[in-house]
């Protein structure tokens, strides 16, 4: 127990009885004025006066405080999102809670709830060696993949970091099933069916079915380090271009996918054959043969 704090309370009460202003009491004792106000108010209303309040204050500070109980319904929501999202992280569970249930909860509390049902292990180790960030000296050497959230529509994106050739698939769900479909489309339609290395982030859309299929198209699959956008700089740059020059920052409905796909195809045509790139010497990625 911090005896000094009890002494401050006693001194605050003595000065208050001597009609010393609360602001002066706070300044003298090096505490907030609101703290002094709370002390005086509780001493005044306590049947035991100063001694009664000091006794209650001492007992309240002894031992750990009981944890607040979490609503069982909220727990079930957190667990169901975890299972639905292929063991997705706390940040994504928080996102879906706010979006679907209008519930705001901290990420540490989410992991506390998850720990009641699951064995939680860190997916990312600070000391994990991932090797150098891949660079490319020729086409098809490195392909980066990612996804962009447009409300009920998700854009799967890919870029050849050397040639800047790209591909996009609009999907109604952010799942590994759609990630695998995009892998098939992009590698067969754009990247000649093979790349030395394919890289993505650790999102749920790049797990399970995607990971089972990825080695059909590459000998090396690399997951970028979390919160290191420079490791996915090419695809992040392309994602910004998709927003600025194609789909914007709007949120879309699933029923709009067919219409939006037509817009994306027009954008890809312009991007590949007409839009100049500074890194390519002001040439577009592709030219018609």
Automatic annotation (TrEMBL):
Molecular-function annotations in GO: nucleic acid binding
Boundaries of every Integrase catalytic domain copy: 130-289
GO biological process, one term: DNA integration
InterPro entries reported in the protein's UniProt record: Homeodomain-like_sf, Integrase_cat-core, RNaseH-like_sf, RNaseH_sf
The protein's name: Integrase catalytic domain-containing protein
Organism: Candidatus Curtissbacteria bacterium RIFCSPHIGHO2_01_FULL_40_12
């Amino acid at each position: 127990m911090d005896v000094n704090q009890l002494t401050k309370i006693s001194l605050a009460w003595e000065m208050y009885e001597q009609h010393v202003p609360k602001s002066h009491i706070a300044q003298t004792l090096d505490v907030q004025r609101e703290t002094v106000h709370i002390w005086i108010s509780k001493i005044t209303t306590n049947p035991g006066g100063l001694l009664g309040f000091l006794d209650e204050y001492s007992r309240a500070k002894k031992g750990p405080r009981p944890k607040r109980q979490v609503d069982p319904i909220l727990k079930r929501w957190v667990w169901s999102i975890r299972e639905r999202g292929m063991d997705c992280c706390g940040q994504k569970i928080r996102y879906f809670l706010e979006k679907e249930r209008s519930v705001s909860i901290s990420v540490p509390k989410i992991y506390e709830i998850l720990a009641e049902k699951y064995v939680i292990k860190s997916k990312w180790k600070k000391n994990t060696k991932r090797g150098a960030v891949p660079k490319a000296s020729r086409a098809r050497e490195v392909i980066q993949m990612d996804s962009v959230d447009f409300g009920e529509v998700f854009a799967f994106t890919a870029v050849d970091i050397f040639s800047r050739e790209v591909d996009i698939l609009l999907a109604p769900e952010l799942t590994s099933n759609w990630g695998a479909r995009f892998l098939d489309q992009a590698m067969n339609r754009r990247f000649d069916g093979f790349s030395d290395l394919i890289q993505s982030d650790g999102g749920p859309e790049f797990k399970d079915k995607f990971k089972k299929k990825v080695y059909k198209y590459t000998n090396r699959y690399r997951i970028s380090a979390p919160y290191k956008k420079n490791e996915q700089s090419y695809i992040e740059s392309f994602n910004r271009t998709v927003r600025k020059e194609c789909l914007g920052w709007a949120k879309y409905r699933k029923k709009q996918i067919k219409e939006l796909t037509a817009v994306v195809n027009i954008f890809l045509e312009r991007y590949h054959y007409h839009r100049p790139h500074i890194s390519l010497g002001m040439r577009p990625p592709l030219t018609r043969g």
